[in-house]
Design a protein that fits this description.
heterodimer; A: about 180 residues; 12 strands; about 35% strand; globular; B: alpha+beta; five-stranded mixed beta sheet
Chain lengths: ~180, ~80
C-alpha cells in the first residue's frame, strides 16, 4: 500500500487494502468530505507510526461582522489538485517521516459543514501536528480556490493571498506558524 | 493563433464569462493575452497587481510564452480552506 501516480486519473492514490482502496491523497470534490475514511486510509498506510493529526475547516456562520448564510466554493480544479500535491511534496521534504492527505470540497457548502480535511501521520506527534498546520497555511496561500460568501444582505468574493508557489517568504511564514 | 482564456471568481463575474476564446498575434506571452483582454474589458485591470496566472494549468509568469491552443488562466487572490 503506497502512494502511486495514476496516469489515467491524473491523481496520486493510496492503493490500500480492505475497504479504503483508491482513496486519493489529494482531492477537490463536490461531495461531502469523509474525515473518518481519510484518517483510516492514512492509518492503514502508516503502520508503525505513532501519531495522526487531523484538521477540519468548517463553514463559519459569521465573517467580518456579516451573518453568513452559506459559502459557494469555486476552483480551478486541475491546478488546485497540482497545488495540493505540491504541498504534500513540500511537507514530505520538510518532515520526511510525515505523510499528508487532504481533500477540499467545492460548490455550495452549508454552515457547519466541512470545506477541507487534512490528515497527517508521523512517527511522533510533533511532525504530525506541524505537517498538518503547514498544509492548511499553504492551502490558503497557493491553492486556486475561492470562497463566494452569501451573507444576509448580499454576496461577496473573498480574496486572500496572491498565489505564488515560488514565494519563499510565504513558504517560510507557513513553516514558522507550523513550528510555533 | 488562438488561446482559451479562463477567468475565475470575481474576474469571471467582471468579464461575464469563465471561458473565452481569443485570437492573439504570435509570438505571444501571457502579458500579450492580458493586454488584449483588458483593452476589451477595462474593469479587469484592477487585478493586474494582485492576480496570479497559469498556462495549461501550471502557475506561470506574465512573461511566459503562449502557444496556439494554450489555456491561459487569470486568478484573483485565493481564499480556499
Amino acid at each position: 500500500m503506497r502512494r502511486a501516480w495514476d496516469a489515467a486519473t491524473g491523481r496520486w492514490t493510496i492503493s490500500g487494502v480492505g475497504i479504503l482502496e483508491q482513496m486519493p491523497v489529494v482531492a477537490v470534490t463536490r461531495d461531502p468530505l469523509d474525515l473518518q475514511a481519510l484518517t483510516a486510509a492514512i492509518a492503514n498506510e502508516a503502520a508503525g507510526d505513532g501519531a495522526i493529526a487531523a484538521f477540519t475547516g468548517l463553514v463559519r456562520d459569521h465573517n467580518q461582522g456579516r451573518k453568513v448564510r452559506f459559502l459557494e466554493y469555486e476552483a480551478y480544479e486541475p491546478l488546485a489538485v497540482r497545488a495540493l500535491e505540491r504541498i504534500v511534496d513540500e511537507a514530505r521534504d520538510t518532515w520526511p517521516d510525515a505523510r499528508l492527505a487532504m481533500h477540499h470540497r467545492i460548490g455550495r457548502i452549508e454552515i457547519g459543514e466541512a470545506s477541507i480535511i487534512i490528515v497527517a501521520a508521523s512517527a511522533h506527534r510533533a511532525h504530525a501536528f506541524a505537517a498538518c498546520r503547514y498544509a492548511i497555511e499553504r492551502v490558503k496561500q497557493i491553492v486556486p480556490i475561492w470562497k463566494h460568501e452569501h451573507f444576509e444582505g448580499g454576496e461577496v468574493w473573498l480574496e486572500g493571498a496572491t498565489a505564488d508557489p515560488d514565494d519563499e517568504k510565504a513558504k517560510l511564514a507557513a513553516y514558522r506558524i507550523a513550528c510555533a | 493563433m488562438r488561446v482559451t482564456v479562463r477567468l475565475f471568481a470575481r474576474l469571471r463575474d467582471l468579464a461575464g464569462a469563465g471561458e473565452l476564446v481569443r485570437e492573439v498575434q504570435a509570438p505571444a506571452t501571457v502579458q500579450t493575452v492580458w493586454r488584449s483582454l483588458t483593452a476589451e474589458m477595462p474593469s479587469l485591470v484592477q487585478y493586474e497587481n494582485t492576480m496570479s496566472v497559469a498556462v495549461n494549468a501550471e502557475y506561470a509568469k506574465m512573461a511566459a510564452a503562449v502557444s496556439d491552443g494554450d489555456e491561459v488562466a487569470f486568478l484573483p487572490p485565493v481564499s480556499g480552506g
